[in-house]
Amino acid sequence: MRKYVYLFSEGNKDMKNLLGGKGANLAEMMNMKINVPQGFTVTTEACNLYYQENKTLNKNIQKQIKQKIKKIESLTHKNFGSTKNPLLLSVRSGARASMPGMMDTILNLGLNDDVASSFAQATNNPRFVYDSYRRLIMMYADVVKGLDKSVFEQFLTKYKDQKNVAGDLDLTSDDMLLITREFKNIYYQNLKEEFPQDPYEQLYNAVSAVFESWNNDRAIYYRKMNNIPNSWGTAVNVQEMVYGNIGKNSGTGVAFSRNPATGENEVYGEYLINAQGEDVVAGIRTPQPIAKLKEELPKIYEEFTKIAKRLEKHYKDMQDMEFTIENGRLYMLQTRNGKRTATAALKVAVDMVQEGLITKEQALLNIDPNIIDQLLHPVFDKNVLATKKVIAQGLAASPGAASGKIYFNADDCIKASKNGEKTVLVRLETSPEDIEGVSFAQGILTIHGGMTSHAAVVARGMGKCCVSGASELLIDEQNKVLKSSDKEFKQGDYISLDGSTGKIYEGQIPYQENQKSKEFITLMKWADEVSTMKVRANAETVKDAKNALEFGAKGIGLCRTEHMFFASERIFHLRQMILAQNTEQRNKALKKLIAYQIKDMEDLFRIMSPNPVVIRYLDPPLHEFLPKTKEEKKQLAESLNLSLKEVEQRCDELKEFNPMMGHRGCRLDITYPEIAKMQTTAVITAAINVKREGYNVHPEIMIPLVVDVNELKYVKEIIETTAQEVMQQLNCSVKYLIGTMIESPRACLISQDLAKNAEFFSFGTNDLTQLTYGFSRDDSAKFLNDYYVKNILLKDPFVSIDTEGVGKLMKLAIQNAKKANPNIELGICGEHAAEKESINFCNQLNLDYISCSPYRIYNARLAVAQAAIKNGRNL
Amino acid sequence: MRKYVYLFSEGNKDMKNLLGGKGANLAEMMNMKINVPQGFTVTTEACNLYYQENKTLNKNIQKQIKQKIKKIESLTHKNFGSTKNPLLLSVRSGARASMPGMMDTILNLGLNDDVASSFAQATNNPRFVYDSYRRLIMMYADVVKGLDKSVFEQFLTKYKDQKNVAGDLDLTSDDMLLITREFKNIYYQNLKEEFPQDPYEQLYNAVSAVFESWNNDRAIYYRKMNNIPNSWGTAVNVQEMVYGNIGKNSGTGVAFSRNPATGENEVYGEYLINAQGEDVVAGIRTPQPIAKLKEELPKIYEEFTKIAKRLEKHYKDMQDMEFTIENGRLYMLQTRNGKRTATAALKVAVDMVQEGLITKEQALLNIDPNIIDQLLHPVFDKNVLATKKVIAQGLAASPGAASGKIYFNADDCIKASKNGEKTVLVRLETSPEDIEGVSFAQGILTIHGGMTSHAAVVARGMGKCCVSGASELLIDEQNKVLKSSDKEFKQGDYISLDGSTGKIYEGQIPYQENQKSKEFITLMKWADEVSTMKVRANAETVKDAKNALEFGAKGIGLCRTEHMFFASERIFHLRQMILAQNTEQRNKALKKLIAYQIKDMEDLFRIMSPNPVVIRYLDPPLHEFLPKTKEEKKQLAESLNLSLKEVEQRCDELKEFNPMMGHRGCRLDITYPEIAKMQTTAVITAAINVKREGYNVHPEIMIPLVVDVNELKYVKEIIETTAQEVMQQLNCSVKYLIGTMIESPRACLISQDLAKNAEFFSFGTNDLTQLTYGFSRDDSAKFLNDYYVKNILLKDPFVSIDTEGVGKLMKLAIQNAKKANPNIELGICGEHAAEKESINFCNQLNLDYISCSPYRIYNARLAVAQAAIKNGRNL
């Protein structure tokens, strides 16, 4: 029979998957002979079984729980449900990953009328006993029966008002007895049943309720945000109660072994005398800073700081601990690696290396790459933030803070920004044409779209704050009005976005700038020392390229040339090119574009010298560039000697049912070889010009969306011929590579043929994921939510590479490509290239580099180092 | 040095890839000691080299040609370019596959002024010599220099008018001399150069010109229609001229060893006395039936019929031959397996088995499955057809003939059809909602869309004539006008479509019905005897199911349940279901739908008993079903207690950027489990009802578009629970299978997991091809044309399975699936399942069955037999 219940003494810190984080750490502390109240853990497997068996706690598990209770009884010399020396219990959730506050807790379980009455007599402390009992009734009603706490709290407030007392501590034992009675009444009135007197009934229901809380709304949401699979389940910890509310010599507290905000090496935390655990967190009474404990209970303080250091040394990380003092005796109730700000994380890690506590590699592994973002994006002034009203919750699509006047289209936004206004661009969803508006705005808010929507991708690429998918809001783009449930915002009204939480605030909020600390610089140096993959940037503009270099990029891994054509004078010629009726007209428009392209390329080559620059040729479906307004169409028609109707007709013709799978990528070069010719002329001319200035240039030309070797050969031929011509004309030669993006399943399947004709591959995992799943990135957000809720997908495949499907194709592609061309250079340039698990996978695939948006380069550098360390270990 | 030129004596019939069909067969006849004029073949490899080297015939090939000319000179005792006993040559194309009339020919090459003059003296037949010379000038000008024949022909007509003579035979030798002179003048005036006098210049240019003709528009079009790769290239046959135009004892003819129209075992053909080859085909003089030769030149007739029988026996197939009689001596100029009507093909094959000439297997292999279509679809009365004007050429999307009044939307078309009119539905492109209109119409014409467009697929599925992509025509759907270059057609005007040629005719044309012959029945019996895969049908309606059974289907392999909801009263409830705002409303609508679904399923189960019926659950993106007109929206809004605006908003919300990759397939069941529940209730209820009537039912429930094993498990769970409930309720059990469609790359990659949870797989190769390539089937026609022209794609992957990419995924999927579940049933239900090469590939993959539209079942049965024979040989 499978074991579903473990005594703390049977576990250890490495059993988190089974016992949850809290349970494993309680076990570990017990092993370390730290004073921990006795108890046991009901496993995560029991939780999954609970759901499999239609939400019932089966007899077998109940039996195992009962056995462990017996064990605890003999260890503590207390008896569960007994009127003499009763064993009271706490029941707490504890998942594999910490999910603070997301799930439920019940304290003082085991009390009933009889037990309370005799326990009050025995302890001679009826105030404490009935305080405990009334808390149990309220928590049980809330957690097990779903009866909101507020009905109890309302009564309590009223009672205190009537008695004219300020706080709970002013209530007497008689008050507590009375309150307990009234709580039982409230329980009965609302639930039409008596509060259960059978302690085992209380216990089994409490365990079940904690399992239930795994699937409450906020837990589901938290897991989704933090990429925690629903399938993990939670464990439940059942533990002997110790009482911080037994008198002046008792108390409870929460503390960190170092300062979680700054990283300073000092115990940091809060405590309350004569209180139970949740009082500290609940904010009913104002807790004292831990330093005060030194004065109040110096021995306890000393003991606690010793334990804190010991635990820190043992776990090799800053600890976040809960403790209770019962009649002058210190009990540890929890320890875990503490959450901290990005600043603190860096300081703690670097300090610990310098203290000899951990190695550089451990320091690198201890830091979550995602928090690095916090160091680069401005944040709101926290004091002001707390006073502001949240008008809606969207998705935290791109971190940072943005406060500004709202505008409903790119043009208005640009105009206002140029006039010196701080702006926020608000759109139903963005299109590639909005890109200039995005670059001017402080932040972007979209009503539709997920974490990987166009707006989100572009914003992250620019390091710009973005909140997407704020579907609670209504937008009327035509009349320029944004509506929340109770208010309308017009053009020019202020709102503020927090891209790290997805919250949208009314009004303006001032920023605070984040500064890079010396610890940050040290850590990044360590990271680069151990890395095996290079980090390049996705960048097209001078600003992005300069940033990329400053952030430590070793070249550009993806220059999306189409982004270079969005400025208004350029897009006009691009449109002329698209609507050209013959090769002649097309060439005329291309000639106009080539001058811009040469200038852009020269800039990038200069900035990036001597690093490589990967230039991806025109990729998106042409209709994305088409004129939207009648005015634009008219102007275009005139320039092409066409009627407005003809332009409209041609625009209609270019519309596609499924543009993602339509006329785009190298398909454009095959229909219009002039495009590849123009782009090659620009790249090679720019390279030669810049080389002559004395720079070291390494252009790598990348052909997008190849699905057949003949496409690659055809475009390659154009590139080689054109490059040859340009070099002859300019009487100068320059080295360049030709490669292809691997972004369709077929490209992976025929990689051997492709590798014979390419000097490098770059995996475009965005499109590869779309095609492997058949998930349109623009549409799937609508239904994927149900996939997470129903445990069908555990992770968003657009965020973290799907190793079973997409990853299998990548592996296949690399194996076969290496057979044909062992020296082929391999990279990745999709959105995944900044996500730590994906980076780790890429490292396992032995990619040469990853390429991500400039603002995620620090993040990626750290993740690349972590991957090298982890995979190095496995070798 | 590679050999690019082969004497006929150096080749044989198995060297078609290198020598082309004509060259290989000339070599074979020479080996058989049949009287063939001497000559040689320039290989297809030389053609490919010609294109690789920028359209030049390199020195090495020229040298090899010259060497062979020397050889021919010594064999024939004639000299090329000599004034005495000159060797004259014919230069003819000859590709691997016969492409009749698509490429160019030049006769009488080697003549110049000097040669002609002395040859005229030597033969004492100046009329013949100058007749030959003037033909050479015209053909050379046309083929090598691109000067249209008409300028010569116009002069000839004028000349004959002036001389008041009826035919060429009435022209004297003086006339011919004069005409030759004038042809040279015309040549000079138009081309600003003299007709070349150097025979080798003539020859090299002629060979080059034939290579060039490989890429003329009609050849490219022909190849595309017939799936012939551009990369094959053509060979060129250079052959000693023999003269059918030397006098009354000479002549030329074309004949078949059997009647190509009926298959009767009798020599069938035509000849002309005193004429050169092209005269027979060109229709300038009316040729005599071959039977007349028996009277006119009995010995020659006897010799020819003997050769015909000998060749037929040798090639084991009906032969199509060209011959020339020169001064009473018979020369064979060509033999090849003859093209024939479907009727003839069957009769010839079956007769030859009965004559002991070939085995049943050979008979089966001799018939192209595609021609079977001709036997099932009505055809136009050929005599009337010839008198009708072609108004445009579209794609031959679905064979058959349709004549009717045009209507521009489904409603008008249905109304008119119900009034007894014959109708043709004309649309810019069709949408799934047009399906009822399609079923009422005689045929469908679309302006957009390729061979695999929605209209084409649906039409083939129904065995309905369809011409798609008729882009020469303009359509104004609103004003109900169709415009050709010179005429307008209004609603109610007659047009006629030939779905086998893609031609669109003005007016009405009467039909002829095709009848199934006894040979047809015999052949199909033989086919089934050797087959290893079963053939099922894609069918939803009673009519289709009955047809499928009659045509020999062994069950239904794909019942697309969404098709069952398009009828107007049903789609209303479907729309209610889609727009339902909560589960309650959705269930209410589903309840309405379930009654229809049960009835439909009962019908199919009854018809198909005891064969299996695969029922695919709702698949397409929901927005495909949404109301289009305001009226429909209003009605829907009322029924759902919504405002019109709300309905419009909801419809907008359902719009997707890439619906092919959007909210469809099992994704619908995951969002709305009620749908799977309703469909299961219907399937199981119907199965039980019909079982109780005594039928043998085998429902196979198929879950579409699975990409993750958890999707499959989730929907399977719903199906199993629901089925269990229904069976308990009705107190009767029924066996059923649950399987999944494999139509995404990821499904192939995780097939091992899927196979553990499925009893069958059916490959949906349409979507699998779309996703593997990233080609949207609805959009790719626009750019794929360039892919064919530029030799990038050799075959349409939507027509024939791409074995390198899609096929590799299928293979992988099967290998891994069999590991997990060795008994899993494997089928295919995409459009590919009726295409012979794809069927052959499926046979190699050991699929259990293929499933295609009812009207392609005969075709598929034959292809399945051929695959079994071919793959059996390999074992």
Structure overview:
The structure is a homodimer of 875-residue chains. The first copy, chain A, has 875 residues and is an alpha/beta fold. In chain A, 47% of the residues lie in helices and 17% in strands. Chain A is built from 35 helices and 33 strands. In chain A, the strands form seven sheets. The first copy, chain A, has an eight-stranded mixed beta sheet with strand order 14-24-23-16-17-18-19-15. In chain A, strands 26-27-28-29-30-31-32-33 form an eight-stranded parallel barrel, surrounded by five helices. In chain A, α21 links the parallel β26 and β27. The two termini of chain A are 37 Å apart. The model of chain A has no long low-confidence stretch (mean pLDDT 91). Chains A and B meet through α26, α28, α29, α31 and α32 of A and α26, α28, α29, α31 and α32 of B.
Give a brief rundown of this model.
Chain A is α/β, with parallel strands linked by helices. Chain A is built from 35 helices and 33 strands. Helix content of chain A is 47%, strand content 17%.
